[in-house]
Amino acid sequence: MNRTCDVVIVGAGAAGLTAGIVLARAQSEVVVLDEGRPRNASAAHMHGFVSRDGVSPSEFLMIGRSELSHYGATLIETRVVAAERTDDHFVIHTGDGQEISSRAVLVASGLTDQVPHTPGVHELWGTAVHHCPHCHGWEVRGRELAVLGGGVPHMTVHQAALLRRYTDRVTLCPGEMELSSGDRSRLTAFGVRIIDGAIERLVTDDGRLTGVALADGSAVACEAVFIAPAPRANDDVLHALGCRFDPRTGWVHTEPGGATSVPGVWAAGNVSNPRAQVITAAGEASAAGIAISAWLLERDLAAAQAVASAEDGR
């Protein structure tokens, strides 16, 4: 199964759907590919998106897909398995055997949170275990909270301090994470309790989180847990297309507007910005969509001018 279009968008989260709508409204033929594994699927609600505050991620995506379809874009639920570029177009290969040729590509495939394997974390991820105080702090304000040492130490320290704005009962359990004396002093002065010791598991009572069990047999009572997991970009397509990556951060290099080092390839949302929230990802993708539309238009103008010049020369 082969098809051609103006733009292939990889990923149908907030970024991919937003860019798809922008481009479809600008009269581009758009194909959006998505394998159906949204990062925030386990969360009951999303916040910070004006007019959509408190909506469930699934409802948000359903509304976005309906709007995308309304403007004539095509959404295909499939996995991208390979990508290549030629002199004047790109070819995306999917897991169900399709080959889609396009003039431009936007990668909005997000990231994967590398959640620790501590027993109980995966089971409660998105319900009682969270990664972002800005996303979930309001809902647990005034409660007893625990912050576990995660894959990004400076963000773990930031979480513990920020959560003190929501409650006066914050406990940091660094576990195997190294905590500097300076951070320890600052957090303690700010009212964060610090309890050292190996983290064994989360404790639940009939499915409800009640605490964090330590290897010495003690437990830290809590009603919600926050962790700063290391993010891993879902950037295989960007690598396959030869995009340049920042040697220091390991993330794809983009210019303002989301353009990568490869002409015709853009990136937006969590695949290029690990700190982007839903509304941020959508905003970045809107800018990328407008930039892609302008890029395609310039190519159309150049092609039209070349044809006109050839005809004049006959």
Describe the structure.
The protein is α/β, with parallel strands linked by helices. The chain has two domains: 195 residues, FAD/NAD(P)-binding domain, CATH 3.50.50.60; 112 residues, FAD/NAD(P)-binding domain (3-Layer(bba) Sandwich), CATH 3.50.50.60. Helices cover 30% and strands 26% of the residues. Strands 1, 2, 3, 4, 5, 6 and 17 form a seven-stranded mixed β-sheet that branches. A five-stranded parallel β-sheet has the order 8-15-9-10-11. The protein has a three-stranded antiparallel β-sheet with strand order 12-13-14, with no helix packed on it. A hairpin with a 4-residue loop joins strand 13 and strand 14. It is elongated, with a radius of gyration of 23 Å. The chain starts with a strand and ends with a helix. The relative contact order is 0.17. The model has no long low-confidence stretch (mean pLDDT 96).
Describe how the helices and strands are arranged:
Layout: E1 2-10, H1 14-25, E2 30-34, H2 57-70, E3 74-77, E4 80-85, E5 90-94, E6 99-107, E7 111-114, H3 121-124, E8 129-130, H4 133-136, E9 145-148, H5 153-163, E10 170-173, H6 181-189, E11 193-194, E12 199-205, E13 208-214, E14 219-221, E15 224-227, E16 230-233, H7 236-240, E17 265-267, H8 278-312
Helix pairs in contact: 1-2, 1-8
